[in-house]
C-alpha cells in the first residue's frame, strides 16, 4: 500500500487506459508502486507480544540468541532521512506509530538526525523519542508525562509558557539505507549496521543507540533478569527481547511477532523492591575472583528476636575495587589465590580478638564460628561480624529450604523461608546501622503482595504502549 497522494495521484494521471472488469466499474491500473519501503512514506511498525514471565519469554526463543534491549518509556518514532532533489538539502521526517507526521513537534530531533547521519544517503530508522535531562551524564530519562506535556505544534514553549522538555531519540533498528531495503536481513545484521559509522554517529543526549545485552548460551534466565534490573536502574520500563538471527528475525511491518517479546516490569511476576541487607558470611572466590570473598551471604534483621535471617547469596554487581575493599574490611588482607583449598578457614585465626593482619588492619570482623542468632542452612567458609548494610535488588521472592527469612510465618511452607532470586549489589549504606536493615516482616509483606496481587491484563498479550495516547 502506498499512502502518499503526492506519489499516487501523478501516477494515476499518467495512466490513461483503465481496464474495465467484467462486472462493471473501473479497475485500478498497476502504478508500479510495488515494494515495501519508500523513503518519506511511513511504514506500519513491527510490534511485540507481551509475556509476564522470564520462563515464558525464554520458551518463545527456544535457546536461540536474542537481544534484551531496554524498553524506553517514550513515543515510537520512525525517522526518515530524505535526499533533496538534484543534490538539494536533505530533510528528516518523523512519523508516529500511527503514521502521523510529527516532525514539527520534534524538529529538534530532526536537526540532530541531520547532524548525525552521513551526507548523500537516505535512510529509515526505527526508535523511541524520550524526554531527558541533558544536564546529567548520561542524559537522565524522565517520566513519560514530561513528553506528553510537550507542545503539539513546533517545539519551544507551550501555550502556558512552559518550556518544552528536552528529548533524545534512542534508535534500535535500520530498515533502509542508501537505496537498499534491510527489512529482510536478520536483526543482528541490521543492528550492527546501525551501530556503524556508515549509518550514524551518535550525539549523547540527542541521538543515541538503544541499550541492550546479547543473550546466548547457558545462564540465559539469570542474564535476562540482570538485564531487567539494569533497565530499571536506567529509568526504563522493562525489556524488549528480540530474536537476533535467521529469517524469523526479519523486520515484519504491522505484525505483532513472536520474534519480539515485551517484558514490562509492572507485569513481571514480583520484580522486587530494593532491600537493605546485612552481610553475615562468605565463601572463597574461584578463578578470577580467587583472593577475594565471593559469593557473600546476606540476611535481614529481626528486631523481635535479635536474629539475622539469611535471604540470598550475592555475587553480581561488584567491581574489582569493591571485592578488594570488602575482603580487606573483613579479613584484614587479600587472601591467597588458592585459599579455597584450605581445610581450616582463615576465620579461626585471631578471629574476634582484634589481632592485626599482615597490613596491621583488624581481623576482628571474622568470627570463629556461626553465631546462634544467624538463622540459615547455608555453610559459609567464613562468618562475618554483622556490622554493615548493603542495598540489594533482585527479581522475585521464592520459598527456600536453605534461606530462613520469615520461616514459620508463611502459610503452607513448613520448614522453609523466603529467598531473593538473582540478587544484585547496588551500593553500601554507611548511613544505616544493622538495626535499621530490612526486616523479615517487611520481606514477607513484599512476598505476599507478589503472590496475592491481581495480574494486569497484559499477561494475555495486551499492549498498552503509552504513545497511543499522544
UniProtKB/TrEMBL annotation:
Recorded catalytic activity of this chain's protein: ATP + (deoxyribonucleotide)n-3'-hydroxyl + 5'-phospho-(deoxyribonucleotide)m = (deoxyribonucleotide)n+m + AMP + diphosphate
Cited PANTHER family: DNA LIGASE 1/3 FAMILY MEMBER, DNA LIGASE 3
Top-rank taxon, per record: Eukaryota
NCBIfam families reported for this sequence: dnl1
Organism: Phaeomonas parva
ATP-binding as UniProt keyword: yes
Protein family according to the UniProt entry: Belongs to the ATP-dependent DNA ligase family.
Keywords: ATP-binding, DNA damage, DNA recombination, DNA repair, Ligase, Nucleotide-binding
Domain (ATP-dependent DNA ligase family profile): residue spans on this chain: 160-302
Biological process terms in GO annotation: DNA biosynthetic process; DNA recombination; DNA repair; lagging strand elongation
Stretch list, region Disordered: 341-370, 449-470
Molecular function as annotated in GO: ATP binding; DNA ligase (ATP) activity
Keyword Cell inner membrane among record annotations: no
Official protein name in the record: DNA ligase
Amino acid at each position: 500500500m502506498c499512502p502518499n497522494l503526492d506519489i499516487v495521484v501523478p501516477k494515476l494521471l499518467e495512466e490513461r487506459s483503465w481496464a474495465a472488469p467484467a462486472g462493471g466499474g473501473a479497475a485500478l491500473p498497476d502504478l508500479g508502486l510495488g515494494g515495501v519501503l519508500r523513503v518519506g512514506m511511513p511504514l506500519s511498525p513491527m510490534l511485540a507480544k507481551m509475556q509476564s514471565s522470564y520462563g515464558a519469554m525464554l520458551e518463545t526463543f527456544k535457546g536461540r540468541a536474542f537481544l534484551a534491549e531496554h524498553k524506553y518509556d517514550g513515543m515510537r518514532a520512525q525517522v526518515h532521512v530524505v535526499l533533496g532533489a538534484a543534490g538539494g538539502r536533505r530533510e528528516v521526517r518523523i512519523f508516529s506509530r500511527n503514521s502521523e507526521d510529527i516532525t514539527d513537534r520534534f524538529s529538534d530531533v530532526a536537526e540532530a538526525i541531520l547532524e548525525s547521519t552521513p551526507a548523500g544517503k537516505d535512510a529509515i530508522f526505527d526508535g523511541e523519542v524520550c524526554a531527558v535531562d541533558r544536564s546529567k551524564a548520561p542524559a537522565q530519562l524522565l517520566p513519560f508525562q514530561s513528553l506528553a506535556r510537550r507542545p503539539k505544534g513546533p517545539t519551544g514553549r507551550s501555550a502556558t509558557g512552559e518550556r518544552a522538555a528536552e528529548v533524545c531519540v534512542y534508535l534500535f533498528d535500520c530498515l533502509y539505507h542508501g537505496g537498499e531495503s534491510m527489512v529482510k536481513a536478520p536483526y543482528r545484521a541490521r543492528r550492527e549496521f546501525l551501530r556503524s559509522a556508515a549509518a550514524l554517529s551518535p550525539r549523547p543526549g540527542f541521538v543515541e543507540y538503544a541499550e541492550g545485552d546479547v543473550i546466548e548460551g547457558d545462564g540465559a534466565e539469570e542474564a535476562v533478569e540482570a538485564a531487567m534490573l539494569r533497565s530499571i536502574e536506567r529509568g526504563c520500563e522493562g525489556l524488549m527481547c528480540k530474536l537476533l538471527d535467521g529469517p524469523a528475525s526479519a523486520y515484519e511491518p504491522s505484525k505483532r511477532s513472536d520474534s519480539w517479546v515485551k517484558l514490562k516490569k509492572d507485569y513481571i511476576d514480583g520484580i522486587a523492591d530494593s532491600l537493605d541487607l546485612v552481610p553475615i558470611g562468605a565463601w572463597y572466590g574461584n578463578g578470577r575472583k580467587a583472593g577475594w570473598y565471593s559469593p557473600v551471604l546476606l540476611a535481614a534483621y529481626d528486631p523481635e528476636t535479635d536474629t539475622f535471617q539469611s535471604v540470598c547469596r550475592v555475587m553480581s554487581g561488584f567491581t574489582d575495587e569493591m571485592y578488594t575493599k570488602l575482603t580487606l574490611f573483613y579479613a584484614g588482607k587479600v587472601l591467597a589465590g588458592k585459599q579455597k583449598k584450605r581445610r581450616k578457614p582463615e576465620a579461626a585465626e585471631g578471629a574476634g580478638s582484634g589481632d592485626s593482619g599482615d597490613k596491621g588492619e583488624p581481623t576482628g570482623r571474622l568470627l570463629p564460628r556461626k553465631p546462634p542468632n544467624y538463622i540459615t542452612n547455608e555453610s559459609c567458609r567464613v562468618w562475618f561480624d554483622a556490622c554493615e548494610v548493603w542495598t540489594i535488588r533482585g527479581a522475585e521472592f521464592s520459598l527456600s529450604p536453605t534461606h530462613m527469612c520469615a520461616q514459620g510465618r508463611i502459610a503452607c511452607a513448613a520448614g522453609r523461608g523466603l529467598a531473593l532470586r538473582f540478587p544484585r549489589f547496588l551500593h553500601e549504606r554507611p548511613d544505616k546501622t544493622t538495626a535499621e536493615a530490612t526486616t523479615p516482616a517487611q520481606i514477607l509483606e513484599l512476598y505476599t503482595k507478589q503472590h496475592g496481587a491481581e495480574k494486569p491484563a497484559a499477561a494475555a498479550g495486551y499492549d498498552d504502549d503509552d504513545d497511543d495516547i499522544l
